[in-house]
Amino acid sequence: MSEALKLTGIFKGYNLGQPSEIRVLNGVDLTLEPGHVTALVAPSGAGKSTLLHIAGLLDTPDKGTVTLAGQDLTGQTDRVRTRARRERIGFVYQFHHLLPEFTAAENIILPQLANGVSQATARAHAEDLLGRVGLSHRMDHRPAEMSGGEQQRTAFCRALANGPSLLLADEPTGNLDPGTSDTVFDALMTLVRETGMSALIATHNLALAARMDRTLRLEQGRLV
């Protein structure tokens, strides 16, 4: 079975108006196996968001390769990369970014419709995902009618709507109180385990990181 994600020799730097380049990633190698949950721990400004953006095909490295499910996507066209991102990768951020005018179910249905799924199938899948995270009673509620934890669990469901093989999460519980954070994290882990996908989760929360399969630390542009 192919690795869910393989990064090889990833370098990335920015000029940011400075006379010399600021090197953010300095030869990152990373392999994520299907069904594994990996914590990414790093201080602010260390480059974890840059790493997640490159892994998620939202940015390109200066040097190195990004391989997703056995396919090297580094030099592919924007169209190929966009399709791979839509079909194979789910994203979750610190803030849920749900569409406020749509219900919880509709937020999960929309990405499926964009992927060619029928309305009935998309609705059934949305109901199943929301049920798994204990939100059947919130199906037809808009984000403003839900708590922060409920919104974030809905965002997880949306990220998994198209059955991705890779989940990338950037501080997914960072905006929640400790009790809610645990509830949301438990829901995330349940979804990941049940679907067999691979997940890379950036977090400052060392207690949450300890509950994952392994922890990687980003230091001076390298993973240790």
Automatic annotation (TrEMBL):
Source species, domain of life: Bacteria
Keywords, in A-Z order: ATP-binding, Lipoprotein, Nucleotide-binding, Transport
Span of domain ABC transporter: 5-224
Pfam assignment, any one: ABC_tran
GO BP annotation list: lipoprotein localization to outer membrane; protein localization to outer membrane
Gene Ontology cellular component annotations, sorted alphabetically: plasma membrane
Statement: the UniProt record of this protein carries the keyword Nucleotide-binding: yes
Molecular function as annotated in GO: ATP binding; ATP hydrolysis activity; transmembrane transporter activity
InterPro entries: AAA+_ATPase, ABC_transporter-like_ATP-bd, ABC_transpr_LolD-like, MacB-like_ATP-bd, P-loop_NTPase
PANTHER family in the cross-refs: IMPORT ATP-BINDING PROTEIN, LIPOPROTEIN-RELEASING SYSTEM ATP-BINDING PROTEIN LOLD
Family (UniProt): Belongs to the ABC transporter superfamily.
Protein name: Lipoprotein-releasing system ATP-binding protein
Biological source species: Jannaschia faecimaris
